[in-house]
Amino acid sequence: MPRDLEQPEVVVQELNPAHWLDEYGNHLYGYALRRLRNPARAEDMVQETLLAALETHHTYAGRSSEKTWLTGILRHKIIDFIRKQARELTVDDINGLSDATIDKDIDILFDARGRWIHPPRDWGKPDRVLENSEFIEAFNHCLERLKPAQAQIFSLKEFVGQSIDAICRESGITATNCSVILYRARMALRRCLEIRWGDDTEKRR
Amino acid sequence: MLSCKEATARVSASLDRKLSLRERLAVKVHLGMCTACRRMARQMALLRAASRRLALEGTVEGMGMETLSDEARLRILQQLKKQ
Question: What's the ipTM?
Answer without folding.
Answer: 0.81
